[in-house]
Design a protein that fits this description.
Radius of gyration: 12 Å
Largest sheet: none
Oligomer: single chain
């Protein structure tokens, strides 16, 4: 538990400092319920979009997978993406 809390803290700090890798890791934590987080596909998509905006192509690939697996809808993706552009 203590190490998971540290991992979460460092990932959040990384996203705040513009790390695309941290965004992907945090998106995966929300998508797959890692680090004792509840699944939250909207938060996952937000972090994947942030990674994409920072230049990491994995972000859009992960969003495409979420769309394909019906974890998010196209309309919710459009709504989420409006916050970035």
């Amino acid at each position: 538990k203590k190490n998971q809390d540290k991992a979460m803290k460092f990932r959040l700090r990384g996203t705040e400092n513009g790390s695309a890798d941290a965004c992907i890791l945090l998106g995966e934590a929300y998508e797959f319920s890692k680090l004792n987080l509840e699944i939250d596909y909207t938060k996952a998509a937000n972090f994947y979009l942030k990674a994409m905006k920072l230049g990491m192509s994995n972000g859009i690939r992960n969003i495409a997978s979420m769309l394909e697996e019906n974890k998010i809808t196209l309309s919710s993706f459009i709504h989420i993406s409006k916050t970035f552009y």
